[in-house]
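Quick one: sequence plus pyridoxal-5'-phosphate SMILES, need structure tokens.
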Amino acid sequence: MEKNTSGNTGLFIPGPTNIPDKIRQALNVSMQDMRAPDFGELTLPIFADVKKIMGLENGEVFIFPGSGTAGWESAISNLLSFGDEVLMSSFGQFSLLWVDMAQRYGLNVHHCEEEWGLGVPLDRYREILEADKAHKIKAVFVCHNETATGVVSNIEAVRDILNDLDHPALLCVDGVSSIGSLEFHMESWGVDVVVSGSQKGFMLPTGLAIVGVSEKALNSRATANLPRTFLSYDDMLKTNVTGHFPYTPATTLFHGLRASLDMIFDEGLYNVIARHTRLANGVRAGVHAWGLSLCAKTPNLYSNTVSAIVIPEDFDSAEVIKTAYYRYNMSLGAGLNKVAGRVFRIGHLGNLNEIMVLQALAGAEMAMHDCGIQIELGAGVAAAQETFLQANDIKVTKAA
Ligand SMILES: *Cc1c(COP(=O)(O)O)cnc(C)c1O
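Reply:
Sure thing.
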């Protein structure tokens, strides 16, 4: 198939997300001296503002050159020791990869393997933690928003279990596709580490691992003996005090991050979160109107940043994605690993509005139609439009 290259490319994957013009312009700056005495004027307020986004009051934010995966690695290597017992669960590609990383680091992982489409197994977590009377489990890991299946997990409920049992394990959370888009309260949820990246809710290019670390977690560094060099929190702490870094930071991305934070605060973090909810409701209304279902099993698990849509049995979702890509110049998210061929994903996070969502739904309808899937053209678009109109709190009245 020849590729349609006209017009804007529709990027409807859950990361990298669309970059607003304001941020693209902010990225276009000359290189600067990262050891300059006033470099902290750029970076220190950024650390403080990222803490606000994460709901972190005490503790520290570390920003590494890297992607979200580097953030995962920093949490493991800075806070744990070889052979430590940890509790983890997998229910999608991202949660699974963090488990794999922990195993490669030589951690002793209690691995709860869940059906893809479910979230963190609270009952299993409680059972395992309750049985751990000697508190051998040093850390509990949760993927807040599983981007492969469009499932959001209840972090507060995990904290409640730890509190109920008086269990001192660290709570480590993957927030790569939730921070800045979904509600997150690191402090009041008692989260010890949250990992994010620049290319999702922060609307930036890939290249920054953004990590929030609680004071309790920082204190556990003293006994943690896994080797760490590039991703060392100690090295970061020493230099970050003045806003400097142990090696060359991605200075241009910091200018982009400044613009991103400004945009989020200008709109208001709660408005940003509300917008994600509204747009996700539109997508879900569309999917329902198509007569299709989501990979996420129950409504309480539906993610407001990404929807994984299950296509009818006899079809291959890769064909839908390929058709959308070549014929309509738009990218939909692929089905990964266990759900390859079964789902396509619509990423609805970051720099996005109602009309962009309608574009994604319209394109997905055409691509599914082209692949022979029985879809009433316009049904998903109309359902989303209806949702958006109802959610529209600006009532336009005809002038008298
Ligand atoms: C994207 C993503 C990652 C991986 O981040 P990279 O930036 O690709 O390294 C991890 N977890 C979740 C939930 C993600 O969405």
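The first helix runs from residue 21 to 27. The mean pLDDT is 97.
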